[in-house]
Amino acid sequence: MSNLAGAGASTAWLWAVPPEHYAVYVKTETFAVRKVGRGALARIRPGDTIFVYLSRAKVIVGMFEAVGTAFEDTTPLVRGGSYPFRLRVHPLVTLSEENRVPYAAFHDRLNVVRDYAGFREVAKQVLHPLPKVDEKVLEFLVRARQGQAPDLEKIRAVLDAYHQARQEAGGPEPVVREAAAVYPAPASFDRAEALEALLAAIETRGFVYEPWQVAAYVTALRTKPFVILAGVTGTGKSKLPALVEEASGGTSHLVPVRPDWTDAAEVLGYTDLQGRFRPGSVLRAAREAQAQAGYHVTCIIDEMNLARVEQYFAEVLSRIEDRRPAPGGAGFESPPLLGNDGPGMEAGWGTVPLPANFALVGTVNMDESAHGFSRKVLDRAFTLELSTVDLAAWSSTRPEAASSVRWPAAAWFPRAVRLSGLPTLSDDDRTRIDRAVGVLSTLNTFLAPAQVQVAYRTRDEVALFVLHAADVAASFRTRSGAAVDPLDLALHMKVLPRLQGGSRTLRRAVLGLLGWATSGAPFADDEDARAVLDAWDAAGRPHALPDASFPYTAARLCLMWERLLSEGFTSFWI
Asked: CA torsion sign, 6 to 12 to 17 to 21?
């Protein structure tokens, strides 16, 4: 192994520990191995640094110092077997559960994997020496994630040592910003090529999505970091965000919603009876993203409408709308979610924003057991429906594993959060914006009488979605290769979810929109719509009408119009 400390100098080690043993090891200040790792253990000397990796949890949990040499002791230390080969240690940094360094933050940054197939193979050695440059990378990550306010002088010293070690090892240095290593998008990053690689990686895993669904999800998430995935159970709503992050080198966290959530306690945190602050699931995920600015993090709010979204998510919704350029121009971030450090709160929790590399994705099933969405929620999200089901799309053989392309966090940053914030535009950009704005202006002539017209926020987000979609235009296609219009999908996601009710004005709005989406001219009465509705029904009630001006919007309006005729009430939701 190259670049290890020489004789007489301290060495750093990576020690893979079973999660169930870690608490005992810390309490007794004694680490142990059974057989694997025994040879390396004999080489550890007092003063050596040990980074502890929980093997199944896939996190770095702390940094320790050896205070002796290896010894043998057969007295029981942990349950589950004999671990006789031991070492006394002293904790330097022990990270709280919410601050632990996740696998995604370090596994592809370490030189130690050079002679192995990957980090997992290194961890299988149980105990392994680290190159000096890897020691400085891990020390920086651990110290930056300490629950207490970091010692800036110590962080600077670590960074200086890291730069020196990197120069000695040879190779490029990543850019470091504040308390996280940031890897900006290289000029050679091809977003269209990367999305095609992502599609191939998902297919390799055996999951079935239309290419346009993945392209629309990725584009919506880039445009605005709040997406709602709707559809029937079992269509992969919760899985899609996790697959995308896995295939692009990011991280995802699943947060199941419970029906008893009536405030933001489980999302942002609360102070317990002992006066200690307990951070909520979204706040913890946001802090992880803040500390690892080079990686994208998605928090999946699963079954988010089992409770009333407005009650437990109101503060987050407000912060989403208050994003502004992040320091250094690296994307857009919100003000702090909590505002300041309160009683019983460890330093830092009160200043956590929604970082530029962080996104929220909610999954919903619309049935009688769930709550509906207010216009406030729908207006702040892209709502993507995953209800296209092809049960014949299965195979016992899978395509060959595709090479993955790591997406830098900057690849997820939008061009702007408002149209007014766009820099110089090309002629093609202006043409796309003018088309989107013209279509929305036409729609408002149908929507305004029912008081469901779109305003400036929707205008900007639809236009930005279309601009971002142009970067990956080839991926907006069906599995058979037919092109899908991103503007059609944007109307489906941002306009149709607003339509709900059975009033006379809403009925006229749906009827006019159906005619416009089908042929470009509004229908005046029920008879005008009958032929389109009959053709849609005869075709098997498809999700798209291929001959319509806006195929996906027209097909959903057929369903909504049918409900109005049969039930006197309609909504976007199935």
From this structure: positive
Tens-digit pLDDT profile for residues 381-411: 999 998 766 666 655 555 555 556 789 999 9
Q: What's the pLDDT score for residue 265?
A: 92
pLDDT of 480-513, one tens digit each?
999 999 999 999 999 999 999 999 999 999 999 9
Residues 34 and 94 in one domain: yes
| 440 within some domain | no
19 and 69 together in one domain: yes
451 domain-assigned: no
Question: Do residues 159 and 247 both lie within one domain?
Answer: no
Q: Is residue 429 part of a domain?
A: no
- The Cα diameter of the chain in Å comes to 91
Q: What is the mean pLDDT of the chain?
A: 85
> What digits encode the pLDDT tens for the residues 174-222?
333 333 333 344 556 899 999 999 999 888 887 889 999 999 999 999 9
Side-chain-side CA neighbours of 461 within 13 Å: the count stands at 27
- Nearby residues of 187 by Cβ (< 8 Å), 6 or more positions away: none
Tell me how far apart the alpha carbons of residues 552 and 545 are, in angstroms, rounded to a whole number.
Answer: 7
Residue 108, CA distances (Å) to 126, 138, 291 in order: 18, 12, 17
Residues 384, 228: Cα–Cα separation, whole Å: 6
- The torsion region of residue 120 among left (phi > 0), alpha (psi -120 to 50) and beta comes to alpha
Q: How far is CA 2 from CA 111, 112, 171, 512, in A?
A: 9, 9, 14, 71
**Is residue 233 scored above 90 in pLDDT?**
no
Residue 545 identity: L
Mean pLDDT of 521-537: 92
What domain range includes position 162? 12-173
Per the CB < 8 A criterion, the answer to whether 74 and 92 are in contact is no
Structural domains counted in the chain? 3
Same domain, 125 and 250: no
Element containing residue 281 per DSSP (H, E): helix 281-291
* pTM above threshold 0.85: no
Q: What are 279's strand-pairing partners?
A: 269
Kind of pairing, strands 127-130 and 59-66? unpaired
